[in-house]
Design goal:
The complex is a heterodimer.
Chain A lengths: L3 H7 L7 E3 L3 H18 L9 H8 L26 H27 L17
Chain B lengths: L9 H25 L5 H15 L3 E3 L3 E3 L4 H8 L1 H19 L7 H27 L4 H26 L5 H30 E3 L12
Antiparallel strand pairs in B: 1-2
Classes of the chains: A mainly alpha, B mainly alpha.
């Protein structure tokens, strides 16, 4: 990040000249920001219709939306039974982040990376 | 731009379910080949970040709102197939747990917000970096992610018009005009996060240009 000029002078770069950081502090900042965004910022998101809803409204087909699957445990990012918008939406966000972390960790641990199976995690390699 | 159930007719949602499921299955296979064990927690964390950031709708021109999508970010960080896998996981959890985006149209959402946005963003980023020889990385990241949103919205417009909802030209015009504004937010967030997380390789081996 600091020596752009020098390295550029040394030779051409491309997308492959850059790798994802292994700096722990940066990843801890990412994790903290993720929880802050989901838990604290989310209740203050705009409730205006999004781009597709705007187009659907303008062109008269918003009504064609229907509910097929009615069993979502936390519909519309609001945890039922809690009082106050900030608490409802914020806790939905935190739950969502935890579910995402768990789901992707299990998927990529079991399916990603050769020779990464059965090393004490107790989880079977579900494929094959 | 999550499509709700009911917007696409039967032939379109069945076709896109097959395409979306195949893309998710294939991305799983590619992830298995490409993902190093030490990146597992990074993939999970970026997926969680994408989910969190998607909750934040920002108002646009008093008429609509947009939110971060994440296809370009995940693809720039991990390549387009792992990107597609992350996006498919985010979209599935949003539909099943939060009733955000339809279930019959999950495949269509994976196709547009996953495959199209990841590959459009990644393609522009790779091509831009090759052309500029690595200069202006942040600007290229911004443009790549702006275009990923425009391309994804064009995909949604195509599916809507194929469903007979409205005429193709009108659909494209309406979707692209709003999403070219929403894409500015995408470009800004992706540029900041990718700028933060990507670093120059410590040893720049000659001839080592190829990965993914």
């Amino acid at each position: 990040m600091l020596n752009d000029k020098e390295t550029n002078a040394a030779g051409a770069e491309s997308a492959s000249s850059y790798v994802i950081t292994v700096n722990k502090t940066k990843w801890i900042i990412m994790l903290a920001s993720t929880f802050a965004v989901a838990g604290l910022l989310s209740p203050w998101a705009s409730s205006s219709p999004d781009g597709l809803e705007r187009v659907a409204e303008d062109h008269g087909f918003l009504d064609s939306a229907k509910t097929v699957f009615n069993w979502a445990p936390i519909p519309d990012y609001e945890v039922a039974g809690l009082s106050g918008n900030a608490l409802k939406v914020g806790s939905a966000g935190v739950i969502g982040v935890l579910v995402m972390l768990a789901a992707l960790w299990v998927i990529s641990r079991n399916y990603g990376g050769r020779g990464n199976h059965g090393d004490g995690s107790g989880m079977p390699a579900a494929h094959k | 731009m999550h499509i709700p159930d009911g917007f696409l007719d039967t032939k379109v949602w069945i076709t896109t379910t097959v395409i979306g499921a195949s893309a998710a299955a294939y991305s799983l296979k590619r992830t298995k080949l490409a993902l190093q064990p030490d990146k597992v927690s990074m993939v999970a964390l970026i997926g969680a970040f994408v989910f969190a950031a998607q909750m934040i709708n920002f108002p646009i021109a008093g008429a609509t709102s947009g939110h971060f999508l994440g296809g370009a970010l995940t693809a720039i960080l991990f390549g387009p197939w792992i990107g597609t896998l992350i996006m498919a996981a985010v979209l599935a959890i949003q539909a099943i747990v939060f009733h955000d985006g339809g279930v019959t149209v999950l495949g269509a959402n994976v196709l547009c917000a996953g495959v199209i946005s990841c590959f459009a963003g990644y393609g522009v980023y790779r091509a831009g970096m090759a052309l500029s020889r690595g200069r202006g990385r942040i600007i290229i990241t911004f443009l790549a992610s702006w275009l990923s949103i425009v391309a994804a919205s064009a995909g949604v417009a195509l599916l809507l018009s194929w469903s007979g909802t409205f005429e193709l030209g009108t659909a494209l015009g309406a979707m692209i005009s709003w999403h070219s504004l929403i894409g500015i937010g995408e470009g800004a967030i992706t540029a900041v996060v990718a700028g933060f997380l990507l670093e120059r390789k410590m040893t720049l081996a000659k001839g080592e240009m190829q990965h993914a």
